[in-house]
Write the structure tokens for this entry.
Amino acid sequence: MEQFEFNYPAKRKIPKRAHVGVVGSGDLEVLLEPIDSPTASVRIRTSVDGFKTTWKAVLDRFFGRYDGAVHIEINDAGATPGAVSLRLQQAVEASES
Amino acid sequence: MNFRSIRPHYLLKVDTAAISCGSNSFDVSVPASVRRELEETNFVVVRRGVVTENWVPIGIRGHQRSQRWAAWYPRYAIQGIVKPMDLLTQVDTMNDQDVSPARRAFKSLKKAWQWFTYPWGPAGSFGFEVATGKQTTTPLSDLDVVIYADESLSRRDAQRLLASADDLEVRLDIRVETPICGFSLTEYATSPTKTILLLTVAGPILGDDPWSKKDCLK
């Protein structure tokens, strides 16, 4: 079990919170919460140790396009980077629909 | 045997000498301690991937939940196939002394799902334990089960399955396998979004119909 946090700049207010995904083998859940300050933070808890660089790469890419002011909690049970990106995309869609 | 009849989560009894890890040999790719354990049980799990006429994609269990080695196994060398559905009945004949939380939970689940007619059974560490007789689950293990839904399963039935399994003593992880992808029953039944995560042989995608080729194979 490993835990880490990343921070990014943000510009845009987000209308509502979202919760997508499930904590099951090879899957993850993403909780997205709007915040007032112009920043974004992500806290990750993962059952698989040793992939901090991969997480950072996935999140850097995500926040390269996303500018929402949010706090994101990720509970991961060994999802692939592809699945992580899709879950983030899904959370964004749910928070803006 | 039709080569499409080997599906993810099936267990294969293998001869370890026939396992292929691609360009590296099995001995180089997989640590010695894991190889020794595999040689005790000789069971590997079929992972999601393209099953060809000659090769089956397999996963080898490591010591920790997060450790899996991906490899390939030649179809001609398969010594036995154990489906989760076979394990469903095998649980009843197991010795009841030293009953684990996973096994108790599984028995309650089986009772609760008596009305359910789709093929299903134990997977993950509990499935492995039932198939090999080797203690694999811990008191903290999730109970993994898999449902093979060749016909589409309604969201209402998915909700009913979940509702009848909500008081188990361990966390339940229910995977559904359709002919074209796999997904989480919990997400399908409860997701606030229209799309859910579908695991296909080409990787994960977001889609709203796990039985639609158009959705899964684009």
Remarks:
- Chain B touches chain A at residues 65-66, 124, 142, 144, 173-175, 184, 186-187, 191-193, 195, 197, 199, 203-206 (CB under 8 Å).
- Helices of chain B lie at 26-29, 32-41, 84-90, 101-112, 124-132, 155-163, 185-190, 213-216.
